[in-house]
Amino acid sequence: MTNTLDAYCVMGNPVAHSRSPWIHARFAELTGQPLSYDRALVPLDGFADFVRDFAARGGKGCNVTVPFKLQAAELATSASERVRLAGAANTLVFSADGIHADNTDGLGIVADITRNAGVPITGRDVLLLGAGGAAAGSLGSLIEQQPHRIVVTNRTQAKAVALIEQHAAIAALHKVELVTLERQVLETDLAQNFDIVINATASSLAGADVPAPSSVLHARSLAYDMMYGPAAQNFLNWASSHGALARDGLGMLVEQAAESFALWRGVRPPSTQVLAELRALLLTEAAH
Ligand code: ATR
């Protein structure tokens, strides 16, 4: 009998910045689950080999981050409906049956908005800024909450159209109005304001302005950036300065990790506590 720990990791490139090892180490401690969770810098042209090798060496599962989420979905032998909708996976589970892919990003943002921020999505009007991987990973889970309407807007309109077409069936199933509006319409039609505005664009990283007019906000809107730290600051400042409740994506990060952990271990970790601890840690680091 061996006493090696069940092994997990986060695979990405770059990956040095990832907080996932810290989060999963806390989950493991707090739930009494003996496991190891490392960072794996995977060569850009070597993802599939790396996954198979990790599984062959006894790895039980992994998280997948930029730029491998699409490849993870393709490589899996089975996948959840969420992966099929998003075309991307952030979680792999290895078993004797093969490699199962899931995507917990959408569950993560929904848990953070509804549970941690206490803002219901059901029946509300939602604006999703962006139509790239981050937006695609969350849209299905947002629809499942049965908001009244989700508007997707993106710099490249054709990508927003493709994204809503991909989700048309699930939106119809949940009776959600899913449409795209061009930026120009948002600028000119001041009746277009939203209860929840989610930034899934990389515009802050690019140093660009928030890709929406402030008229999309009303006094009780929740403005949510999927990023955290300096990358979210521009959007959060914009939202606060227009009177909205501003929230970064740190809770989404912890909640998607909690969903992955539950898939692997069958145990739900205390994500609210770990989120509070991580926020405190980041504040301490920022002060030094
Ligand atoms: P991610 O995986 O982070 O979503 P992505 O798939 O490259 O990355 O998507 C980036 C998103 O940010 C896209 O919606 C992109 O708009 P385009 O589809 O038009 O490229 C958006 N984005 C990036 N830079 C932007 C900017 N300066 N202004 C507005 N939107 C921007």
TrEMBL record:
Catalytic activity: shikimate + NADP(+) = 3-dehydroshikimate + NADPH + H(+)
Coiled-coil stretches: none
Domain of life: Bacteria
Keyword Amino-acid biosynthesis: yes
GO cellular component: cytosol
Family annotation (Pfam families): SDH_C, Shikimate_DH, Shikimate_dh_N
SUPFAM superfamilies found in the cross-reference section: Aminoacid dehydrogenase-like, N-terminal domain, NAD(P)-binding Rossmann-fold domains
The protein's annotated pathway: Metabolic intermediate biosynthesis; chorismate biosynthesis; chorismate from D-erythrose 4-phosphate and phosphoenolpyruvate: step 4/7
Complex and partners: Homodimer.
Function, in words: Involved in the biosynthesis of the chorismate, which leads to the biosynthesis of aromatic amino acids. Catalyzes the reversible NADPH linked reduction of 3-dehydroshikimate (DHSA) to yield shikimate (SA).
Protein name from the UniProt record: Shikimate dehydrogenase (NADP(+))
Gene (UniProt): aroE
